[in-house]
Amino acid sequence: MPFSHDMVYSLATVVDLINTSPEAGDHDALADLADLEAFVRLRRVSGVAALTPQDLAEVVELRQAFHAVFTAPDRATAISRLNTLLGRTRITPSLTDHDGFPLHVHYFAPGASVAEHLAADCGVALAHVLVEDEWERLRTCAAPDCSHVFVDESRNRSRVYCDSRTCGNRIHVAAYRARRKA
Ligand SMILES: [Zn+2]
Ligand SMILES: [Zn+2]
């Protein structure tokens, strides 16, 4: 994919965020502040102050807005949903090389909350996916019992499972058993 490392990183973050939702996973993995703190640590969301219940509420709402972009029925709807999200996000680009990362652009405004940080950086990354006309890479897993979202980074855009080792493999085994029975 023609995306820089920090774009790819932000896309992985938004995928992880959406997959914490009970609609995409099997339970709400952002159920309390400890969950949010773990997520912020895991995804190395920088410049975040002490987290509050309001942060949790905002991130959960944002998670739903991002999920709606991934599951939009068509490209035009994805664009309009992402525009709504970006329209209510303060964005201030700045170059940084914090914590030993190579030089990259942050989009969140100074003093941004964790939800604003995620909305800005992940929102811009998704905007680039749409601009590059790669919207169809934003996918939901094809396994019947899995609703995880993922970004298909394969060259020929052929990936259909969130994880080939788990969902993909499970389906292959089921198909193999079905064939043997037939
Ligand atoms: Zn950074
Ligand atoms: Zn899956």
From TrEMBL:
This is Zinc finger CGNR domain-containing protein. The lineage of its organism: Bacteria, Bacillati, Actinomycetota, Actinomycetes, Streptosporangiales. SUPFAM superfamilies: Jann2411-like. InterPro entries: ABATE, ABATE_dom_sf, Znf_CGNR. It holds the Pfam family zf-CGNR. It comes from Planotetraspora kaengkrachanensis. Residues 137-180 form the Zinc finger CGNR domain.
